[in-house]
Amino acid sequence: MTAAKRPQFYRILLKLSGEALGDEHGVGIRPAAVHHMAGQIREVRELGVQVVVVVGGGNIFRGVSGSEHGIERATGDYMGMLATVINALALQDALEKLGSPTRVQSAIAMSQVAEPFIRRRAVRHLEKGRVVIFGGGTGNPYFSTDTAAALRANEIGAEVILKATKVDGIYDSDPKKNSKAKRFTQITYPEALQKRLKVMDSTAFSLCMDNKMPIIVFDLFRPHNLRRVVMGEKVGTLVAG
């Protein structure tokens, strides 16, 4: 009798874009999309995996685009950080309704709706089986939620960053425009830089590379894909070494 297969990872950081929670255009909050994400998170939590989520805010407001329309960049970035907290609360609500205990921690103090980010407290929540959702980015303008994901993953001792996208990995060119685009199953940090593959923004990517934090880019819109990644199946593209 063979032993049941165990998860390959026991503490993960899932990076969700705000657009993943939106409608077909990536705008607003679509309840069906939020519940789909929550269902996949619950599925891996029930395997005993500790889950941390960093969510973007591009479905509501993006600081860079705001600055292009006359809003001062730092102000626009703070507006974007507040948008990530709105998304974090929406995801928390969906997870709690599925029976998954959850905590939202914000890098911007707002004690009525979220805990402040405290690393040791976040780790304790994970040890108690709670899903921890980080909102508010890093709490600083000019830093993306990709950078927040890289920072928090290293701070809380995650084994891997799982970057959820709408495509099944990293390609050498846009697969929507080039039918012959090649998908990488694995690539090193230097190769990704040399080929100018936009895995994350440069600050986030450098933080991962310097601390040898592996990144798996995968399609979260396929049912059970998060579970497949956690169980060690060859899903998406691994960036490491």
Describe the structure.
With 241 residues, the chain is of the alpha/beta class. The protein has a single domain, classed as Acetylglutamate kinase-like (Carbamate kinase), CATH 3.40.1160. The chain has 8 helices and 11 strands. It has helices spanning 31-45, 63-68, 73-97, 119-127, 145-155, 189-194, 202-210, 225-230; strands at 11-16, 50-55, 102-106, 115-116, 131-135, 160-165, 170-171, 183-184, 186-187, 215-219, 237-239. The strands form 2 sheets. The chain has a 9-stranded mixed beta sheet with strand order 4-3-5-2-1-6-10-11-9, sandwiched between helices. α1 (31-45) links the parallel β1 and β2. α1 crosses α3 and α5 (145-155) runs parallel beside α7. The chain is globular.
Write the CATH homologous superfamily. Acetylglutamate kinase-like
* Order of H and E elements: EHEHHEEHEHEEEEHHEHE
Total separate domains: 1
What's the number of helices?
8
Q: What's the CATH class, please?
A: Alpha Beta
Helix content: 25-40%
Number of strands: 11
Proper CATH architecture: 3-Layer(aba) Sandwich
Strand content: 15-25%
Strand order of the largest sheet: 4-3-5-2-1-6-10-11-9
Find the CATH topology.
Carbamate kinase
> What structural class do the secondary elements suggest?
alpha/beta
Taking all Cα atoms into account, the compactness measure Rg is: 17 Å
Envelope shape: globular
Major β-sheet annotation: 9 strands, mixed
C-alpha end-to-end distance? 36 Å
Low-pLDDT sequence parts: none
- Overall mean pLDDT score? 93
